[in-house]
Design goal:
Layout lengths: L4 E4 L19 H10 L4 E5 L13 H14 L2 E6 L1 H5 L7 H19 L5 E6 L8 H13 L1 H6 L3 E6 L3 H8 L7 E6 H7 L3 H8 L3 E6 L1 E2 L5 E2 L8 H10 L6 E3 L10 H17 L3
Parallel strand pairs: 1-2, 1-10, 2-3, 3-4, 4-5, 5-6, 6-7, 7-10
Antiparallel strand pairs: 8-9
Length: about 280
Amino acid sequence: MNHKIGFIQGRLSPIVDNKIQAFPWGNWQEEFSLAGENNFQLIEWTLDQSDLYLNPIMTNEGRSEIKKLSYKHNVRIPSLTGDCFMQSPFWKASESEKAVLEQDFINVCDASAKLDISFIVVPLVDNGTIENESQEDYLVTFLMDHASKFQLNNQKIIFESDFDPGRLHEFIQRFDSRNFGINYDVGNSAALGYNVDDEFNAYGKNIMNVHIKDRKYNGNTVPLGQGDANFDKVFKNLSKFSYQGNLILQTARAFDDNHIEPLVKYRNMTKEWMNCFAL
């Protein structure tokens, strides 16, 4: 089961600027060795807009080092969370900024393809949330215009969204299912008060990646099992829809610098849910 359970980059590093998630500039290499030592085989990369082109995934030298570390520690990078897209969404930018941010998007996809990263997570939440029809149309048109590139890169563009189930169903139907899908975030759905069965009935077949975390209704991330996420229902539905993708731990942070222990605990909890529903 370990080959299906990974973690968001940074979860095995010291907290950066009190943020729950940020690229761990001073510790990213060490995360590979820590992952390998603790039998984690998957890391989901994180990418911020700040110093975007200095991130190792965006440079030849960085990608070469990533490949060496991946091979040495038997750790793959199947997916990337583009926090940069949420921080500076081209679909909401001014006309003078759009072209630069669109090129950033393409460059991130091309750089990721060189590392065989298959899934690019586009967060349509927080600053990236779609606020009107014009923004949605712009995003859909841009991505569909580049669908052939994503297919050539062997990549799926997957959306994490705050849309309600019916609205998200309508949104994802606008895309070619061969190249586009949904990143299901358990904690975000709990915080928004969405019904798990309604969500899966609306777009369960489109889910290609899952973020495992827990949140209180209208609240923040908390340790697994201490929030309002209904994990039994989630895993029952994942089994019902024969989900074969990865489960990425985007869990609550430890503030005592003991990052390994809680992450291993959360992995074991995830395994138990998988066992209960034969996932």
